[in-house]
Amino acid sequence: MIRRNVLIMALLLSLGLNLFLLGAIGSRMGSVSDLRDARPLPPNLSWIIRDLDEDRQQELTRVIEPLATEIIPLRLAMIEAQREVNRLMASSEFDNDAITAAFADLRAASEAYGARSHEQTIAILSELSEAERQSATNFVRRRGPRDGFSGFGGPGAGRVQAT
């Protein structure tokens, strides 16, 4: 009888903890008021504004976010084409024609993504001042980690104020 009561208490505690965590996650997801907080900027463009001050980043984020709807499908197509190449390379039966076609599809997807990414980069760079463009150039030239890890030239180095 005591063992049964302990088991019931453990199950109730587990259920309560799970419901609490589920509620916390749901609350967090429901409280995201700004779409920018819910998902990051497209990786092909976020680096451009990374070292700018917060106000300028927010201003340019409003320009960049609509571009994500154009680039995300191209990026996903490129990733899917790469997966198909990987699948064919790992296949037990090597199919020369299939892998040749898959590589051609990957090249086409990569070219489409790269071309649109470059067009978007030019569009954003045209919105920047000379000093802000220099900051973006410095980011590309920097050595070492760039995503919040310690190292030479990490995030925030060389922040530029909007002019």
Helix and strand arrangement:
Elements: H1 2-30, H2 35-38, H3 43-49, H4 54-90, H5 96-125, H6 130-141
Helix pairs in contact: 4-5
In words, what does this structure look like?
- The chain is mostly helical.
- About 8% of the residues have low confidence.
- The chain has two domains: 31 residues; 106 residues, Four Helix Bundle (Hemerythrin (Met), subunit A), CATH 1.20.120.
- The chain has six helices and no strands.
Helical content band: over 70%
Label the structural class: mainly alpha
Report strand %: under 5%
Q: What would the principal axes of the Cα set say about the shape?
A: flat
The number of distinct helices, counting runs of at least 4 residues, comes to 6
CATH-scheme architecture of the largest domain: Up-down Bundle
Largest beta-sheet details: none
H and E order: HHHHHH
CATH class group of the largest domain: Mainly Alpha
Q: According to CATH, what is the topology of the largest domain? A: Four Helix Bundle (Hemerythrin (Met), subunit A)
Question: How many strand segments?
Answer: 0
Query: Whole-number radius of gyration?
Result: 24 Å
Cα-to-Cα separation, first versus last residue: 75 Å
Instruction: Quote the average pLDDT.
Output: 80
